[in-house]
Each structure stands twice: as C-alpha cells, then as structure tokens.
Design a protein that fits this description.
single chain, about 250 residues, alpha+beta, five-stranded antiparallel beta sheet, three-stranded antiparallel beta sheet, 2 helices, about 25% helix, elongated
Amino acid sequence: MKMRTASSFRQSGMTIVEMIVATGVFAAAMAALISASIAMQTSFKATDAYFTSEGDQLRVMDYFNTDLRRAMAVSLSSNSVPYKPPGGTSTVFTYTNSSIDQATKYLTVVIPHYRIPTTPPSPYNDPTKINTPTLVPTNTGNKVAYGADYSKPIVVCYYLLGSTLYRAEVDPDLPANDARNKPRSIADNVSDFSVADSVVKNPLTTQTFVSVSATFAPKYSRSGWKAALDPTSNTASRQGTTVGTKVQLRNIF
C-alpha cells in the first residue's frame, strides 16, 4: 500500500486578493440596495406629505372664503370685532379662551346666525309635519341675513398658535364653555398668516376687499423648516408654499 504525502493533497480556498474583491463587490451591492430603499421611502413620504399639505391648503382657503363671503363685520389682526346690526347699537364681540393670549395672528368675523336653535320650535319637532328650517335667508337692504335677531350673530375667530392655525365658531345659543364652541385645528405646519383690507371706490359704489394668506413651512429642508418656524427669522427664510384668497365683503351692515 502506497502512502500519500501531505504535499500531494490539493489545498482549496480563496486568496486574500479574492476575498478583498468579493467583500468590495458585496459592500457596493448592499450600499446600492440601502440607498434605493431610502430613496423609495423618502419619495413615498414626500408624496404623502404633498397630498396632505394640499388638502390642508384647500381646506383653509375654503374656510376663509365661506366666512368672509357672509361676514357682517370683520376685524383684522384682533380677536375682537365691533358690529352694529341694522337699527341696533354697536357691540364689540371678543373671542377668548385659555390660550388666545399666546397667539400671534388673528382674524375675527361676525357671520349671520345660520344655525337651527338648540330646541327648534314646532313644526320642526313634529315628525308628522314637513320639517322646514326655521332660519331661512332674508334680504335686508340688499344684505343677506338669517332670522330676525341680528344682535346675536355667530363669532368666528382664526388665530395662529405656534405652527397650528385654529378656527373657533361661537354659537350664541350655546353656553360659553360648551365643547362645540371650542377652537379646532384646521391646518398644521403653518409658518405665517396674514390679512389685509383694501377699499376700491368708483362713482357708483365703494367696495371693500379682504385678502388672507397662509404660508406653509417647507418640510423637506431641515434648515428651511427650522428657520420658517423661528419667529425671529426674516421673511426670506420662509420659503414654504403660500396660498391666499381675496374676497369682496358684500354683506357688511
């Protein structure tokens, strides 16, 4: 029987150079895979945030347009609004809550009391009869109004607290501490909010317009986002999306 020496066996394995090349290829493939995964997640979040922000902007403009078109009195940069109903005395309506003093921007309007009273009169409560609204719009001096008592309007206040835009609608038929009178957030990530009025005169009529705009802070630039939310920063750093509306006040008494 012939014995084989150790040197006669073939040694199998990878050289150091081959291991270095294989490790480099593997690392490059993993880096590309991770980069692609991060890019896809970022793209998904950006798309989702885009549609969310677009919805916020459309909702804010819808609120502004609806309230200003039926406003009977408007106060810019204040949570108080003076209102004088037809044939009545001027009254100052002030919106207050526990955090209103910390707000930075305001817009307060008085709108007609369009809501059904808490306890509607008959036949509204009578199921055997046709239910008809008790507050129907009427025309008083070419001004739209609801009901007969103009001294109890609904007060709507917008205010910016931090980066959140709030809207409060106070029903005079409800207790002041009723949950339905509490402010509600209508948009987040709002970096700025401004209102301005303008009067246009011509030989026949005098028209008053109110312009409202809200700037949404940028979400995908950390430096821009922080600068936009910094109250001490200048306006040049507020490079978010600005949406606005200009409404003619046609219902001012």
